[in-house]
Each structure stands twice: as structure tokens, then as C-alpha cells.
Design brief:
Blueprint (H helix, E strand, L loop, with lengths): L5 H11 L4 E2 L2 H8 L12 E3 L4 H14 L3 E4 L18 E4 L6 E5 L4 E4 L5 H10 L4 E2 L11 H6 L15 E8 L4 E3 L32 E9 L1 E2 L3 E9 L5 H13 L7 E5 H5 L7 H4 L7 H11 L4 E9 L2 H16 L5 E3 L1 H5 L2 H10 L18 E5 L2 E3 L2 H17 L7 E4 L3 E10 L4 H21 L8 H9 L4 H12 L14
Parallel strand pairs: 2-4, 3-4
Antiparallel strand pairs: 1-2, 5-6, 6-10, 7-11, 8-9, 8-10, 12-14, 12-15, 13-14, 13-18, 16-19, 17-19, 18-19
Helix pairs in contact: 1-3, 6-13, 13-14
The chain binds flavin-adenine dinucleotide.
Length: about 500
């Protein structure tokens, strides 16, 4: 690990003030901590710029002193790398002091946000204004950054689920220190920066997603008018093999846009993990979870093998009721679905998570999932599965086989559009157990290889596996390297992120 030159810290202390830098051993340990199998990755220190100009100052100093940086907005990328850098020694640029909501336009429905603005913060501000607008939130940490999540290809569950898709107009400090405003933001005095995505000329915003060409310092985010009535529906299905039929039932509902939200297909252990921990005492320490015990826990919590959830929006209860009746007929035609109403779901913490996410309400209720096993290990495997029941069932069998071989449960939530679903597989392991950590890493690699061989690549990867995941792609890695040379000639911003060097 290269050490950060003293002159870099001296320069930043002089320009930004002593409170904006921290390279104490406590800070290095805190920012190096993560949940990945191969151990913490210690940064060279931390810097806290308070404005776009200060980010420029940091980037220019990094260029002068050949220091590498690791930008994070709030660093709550839990299970994907947390705050720790992709390579040891990088200086974390934590944008938490840049947490201003510059504007909320309630007529054209957008917000202009600093990267440090959290889901909770925007939700509270919208509430203060009477909740006329609805944001799209994740089911993850409420103190996560809206901008950070969007540029990491994060997603929510409302019709505005595609968080990057809902950004409009970015401000970026490039690796060479220039400030780029994308789309209409490039036009001095333009009043349409956060209204039209594409502007004049090439569309550059995508370059700053899962990349290392710049530090995003501001973004427009579209918001939805909050519907007066939001009614979720849930159907539980008893058997593992119902999964294929579920996927085939969902596909037309989404392709026709009959259901405006995404549909989630959550398996038993994913749900159980939010309210239970692994029952070691019952298994005599054995893993993975035996099927009879899994069934017992399903019964205890009133869930089946799968829970399907979605929601309707309307201006009254009456307007929504026929839609609920329609999806009931649709799912119940399978002969397997059990309906759980919005009101019943509110009483069960497992289901309440879905009510919150479909109404754009940040929730912490899913976070205990990470305590399913002790020891604080978590890596999220996130492949894409097409919305075809027979293929989805093949994927289910493949995941179950590989996870079980390495001693892990199949924990999953499929987040479904009409064509494809993001198959969330949090791999929760005891990081304090060296053998289990090694098995987790091997299991992740086996999953990655099996899915790639079957033709289903990843959409997002924990930092420890980004380089390997990216190496499976053709041409894109070389094009990214070419772009890196132009936009960040000294490679100061996060070299190695998503394999881009
Ligand atoms: C139980 C649970 C549920 C979850 N549910 C969801 C979910 O529903 N949807 C979802 O998307 N995620 C989910 N997550 C994953 C993750 O916790 C969230 O995506 C979280 O919002 C990401 O952290 P952040 O927003 O603080 O981003 P950050 O950690 O700040 O950023 C993410 C990455 O983007 C880059 N980056 C961030 N800011 C900048 C910047 N300004 N300039 C350049 N690069 C930058 C960095 O490389 C960073 O590692 C979940 C996690 C858990 C534990």
C-alpha cells in the first residue's frame, strides 16, 4: 500500500481547513471496514469537501501529488463494499457535508440534490411540504445517498424504481479537475437542466454510472406526484417449484403495465432473515438450513416458499378495489396463491417492508437480514433472470445447488419488470470464521461462473469482485480504459473500480 504524501494533507489542510481531513488510525480503520470475505481494505485517510469547488481542490491536489481517491456519497453500500475503497491506500472522499436540497419543484416534480442527501432526509423534507410528491426509496439503509445509489445502478420499487433512469442532469468534477454539467446544464443559464435528459449532442450521463471518470457533485432527480391512495397486495405460494408459474403470471401484468409498481418475488429465507436469525441451536451448528426447519419457520410466520408483492395507486379506495380484484383472480387462478390484504400485511413486519417500499417510504425493517448469520459478512450476488418461468426455475435450481454445496441457504428476492428481473442474492456469512469466509468467496465465484456460462451476467458487484466480473466483458473494459486516459489522465479517481484502470 502506498502512503499518502504529507504534502497532500498539508495542502488540503491549508485549503479546506483541518476539520476537512482525517488520517487518524481510527478513521482509517472505520473507513476500511467492510463485509467482504477477504478482509477490510484500509484507505490512506478521509477528506470531507463541503462544495463542488472543494471537490475540485481535492482532485487537483490528488493530481499534483499522485494520490488516488475513492469517492462515496454516504457510503452505505451495504453488502457491496460499504465505505471502503476498491484498493488499499485510496483516500476516501466522503461527500456527507454536501447534503443540500437545492430545490424541490412541486409543479414539474423534481429535486435538485447534493450527493450527501439521504433517502430519509428527502422523505422528511417532502413530508414537511405535505407529501405532495413521492420519492422512490430502496429497502436498504435510510441514511444511504440518493445520488450515490443512483450512480451505482441502485433501484427502488415504485414506478420510478430505475434510480439512474430518474436522474436528469448531473454535475461532475472530472479526474482532470474540470466541472462538467451534463445535458442542458452545459448551456449557460439554461432553465431546463433537470427537465430533459438528453439535451444537445451525445448523452454523457451514463459515463458516470459504475465508473471512475469523475465525482458527481449534484444531480436532478425526478419525483412522482404522491397518489392519494396506495394499496399493496401480497400473495404467498407454498412450494419452491411454484416459482416458474409465478414468473409467468407476473410477466403480462408488467408488460401491459397493469401493475404500476415493480413486482417482488421474495423467498422464505429472505423474509425470515428480517425477523429471525439462523437457528444454530436447532441444527446443532450444521448449515445450510434443513428443509424441515425451513418449513417450520414458514408456518410460524405465515409465509409460504414465496411471497409476491406489488401495489396499485388511485384517487380513492373504490378506484383501486377492482384492480385488486383483478390481480386476485389472476394469481388465484394458479390454485396455489393465498391472498394477504394491505391491512393484514401492515400487521406483519415481514410484509410491512413491501408496503413501505411501494409507497416510497424509507424503512430500516429489512436491515436485520444481515444478522441472519453472525460475524458481519455479506456480499450481494445480483444477476439478471429473464421473465420466463422455465428459465427462472432453472436459475432457482442452479442457485440452490451452488449455495448448498458451499453451506449457504438460498436467500433471494426477484425484482421483476416485464422482461427481466434483478435476482437479489444476499450471501450472508460469518466473517469471523475464516473457513466460512473462504467458502463465501468461492461460492460467489462459482455463482458468477455458472450464471455467465448460462448467459446471464451481473448488474452490480461488490468491490472485491468487480475486477473479475468486468474481465468477463468484451471491448467495454478497453473502451473504458481509453476514456479514463482522456477524462482522468493521472488515474486519480478510484482506479480499479469496476475493473477500470
Ligand atoms: C437489507 C438491504 C436492502 C437493500 N436494498 C436495496 C435496494 O432496494 N435497492 C438498492 O439499490 N440497494 C439496496 N441495498 C444496497 C445498498 O445498501 C444501497 O444501494 C445504498 O443506497 C447504497 O449506498 P449509498 O446510497 O450510501 O451509496 P454510496 O456508498 O455513497 O455509493 C455507492 C457507490 O457509488 C460510488 N459513488 C457514490 N457517490 C459517488 C459520487 N458522488 N461520485 C462518484 N462516485 C460515487 C462509489 O463507488 C460507491 O461505492 C440494500 C442493502 C441492504 C443491506
Amino acid at each position: 500500500m502506498t502512503t499518502v504524501p504529507k504534502a497532500f494533507w498539508d495542502e488540503l489542510r491549508g485549503e479546506l481547513g483541518a476539520e476537512a481531513i482525517d488520517f487518524s488510525s481510527a478513521a482509517v480503520a472505520d473507513y476500511g471496514a467492510n463485509m467482504m470475505p477477504s478482509g477490510d481494505r484500509l484507505p490512506g485517510g478521509v477528506v470531507y469537501p463541503a462544495s463542488t469547488a472543494e471537490v475540485q481542490t481535492v482532485v487537483r491536489a490528488a493530481n499534483r501529488h499522485r494520490v488516488t481517491l475513492w469517492p462515496i456519497s454516504t457510503g452505505r453500500n451495504v453488502g457491496i463494499g460499504e465505505k471502503s475503497p476498491v484498493r488499499e491506500g485510496q483516500v476516501v472522499v466522503h461527500l456527507r457535508r454536501m447534503n443540500k436540497i437545492h430545490e424541490i419543484d412541486e409543479t414539474l416534480c423534481f429535486a435538485d440534490l447534493d450527493p450527501g442527501v439521504t433517502f430519509k432526509q428527502l422523505y422528511e423534507e417532502l413530508g414537511r411540504r405535505g407529501h405532495k410528491l413521492m420519492m422512490s426509496s430502496t429497502s436498504g439503509p435510510t441514511d444511504g445517498s440518493i445520488v450515490g445509489n443512483a450512480i451505482d445502478k441502485g433501484a427502488g420499487y415504485t414506478p420510478y424504481f430505475d434510480h439512474f433512469g430518474m436522474t436528469c442532469g448531473l454535475e461532475v468534477v472530472l479526474g482532470d479537475g474540470r466541472i462538467l454539467r451534463t445535458a442542458d446544464g452545459a448551456s449557460p443559464g439554461a432553465k431546463t437542466w433537470h427537465l430533459v435528459k438528453y439535451g444537445l449532442g451525445p448523452f454523457l450521463d451514463g459515463l458516470f454510472v459504475q465508473s471512475n471518470f469523475g465525482i458527481v457533485t449534484r444531480a436532478g432527480m425526478w419525483l412522482m406526484p404522491r397518489p392519494p391512495v396506495i394499496r399493496a397486495f401480497i400473495f404467498t405460494f407454498p412450494d419452491d417449484d411454484d416459482f416458474g408459474a409465478i414468473i409467468d403470471l407476473i410477466r403480462p401484468l408488467k408488460l401491459n403495465n397493469l401493475v404500476p409498481t415493480l413486482l417482488k418475488v421474495t423467498n422464505d429465507v429472505y423474509s425470515l432473515g428480517t425477523v429471525e436469525t439462523y437457528p444454530y441451536a436447532r441444527t446443532g451448528g450444521r448449515t445450510p438450513l434443513p428443509d424441515d426447519l425451513r418449513r417450520e419457520l414458514q408456518r410460524k410466520h405465515g409465509i409460504g416458499s414465496w411471497s409476491v408483492s406489488g401495489a396499485f395507486y388511485g384517487d380513492s379506495e373504490e378506484s383501486v378495489r377492482p384492480m385488486i380484484e383483478r390481480v386476485r383472480r389472476h394469481f388465484e387462478s394458479s390454485g396455489k396463491a393465498r391472498y394477504v390484504s394491505h391491512e393484514q400485511a401492515r400487521e406483519n413486519p415481514i410484509f410491512r417492508i413491501h408496503l413501505d417500499t411501494f409507497s416510497g417510504t424509507p424503512t430500516e425493517e429489512e436491515m436485520p437480514l444481515h444478522d441472519w448469520r453472525p460475524g458481519g459478512g455479506s456480499i450481494w450476488f445480483l444477476p439478471t433472470t429473464p421473465m420466463i418461468g422455465s428459465i427462472a426455475n432453472q436459475h432457482q435450481r442452479m442457485s440452490r445447488r451452488i449455495l448448498s454445496h458451499y453451506g449457504f441457504e438460498f436467500i433471494t428476492e426477484y425484482v421483476c419488470t416485464g422482461r427481466a428481473s434483478r435476482a437479489l442474492h444476499p450471501l450472508i456469512f460469518n466473517r469471523k470464521d475464516a473457513d466460512e469466509s473462504q467458502r463465501a468467496a468461492e461460492c460467489f465465484r462459482a455463482l458468477m461462473a455458472a450464471y455467465a456460462e448460462a448467459g446471464y451476467p451481473l448488474s452490480r458487484a461488490p468491490t472485491e469482485f468487480q475486477e473479475e466480473a468486468m474481465a468477463r466483458l468484451q471491448v467495454i473494459p478497453q473502451v473504458c480504459s481509453d476514456l479514463k486516459r482522456v477524462l482522468d489522465p493521472n488515474s486519480v479517481i478510484a482506479p480499479g473500480k469496476y475493473g477500470i484502470v
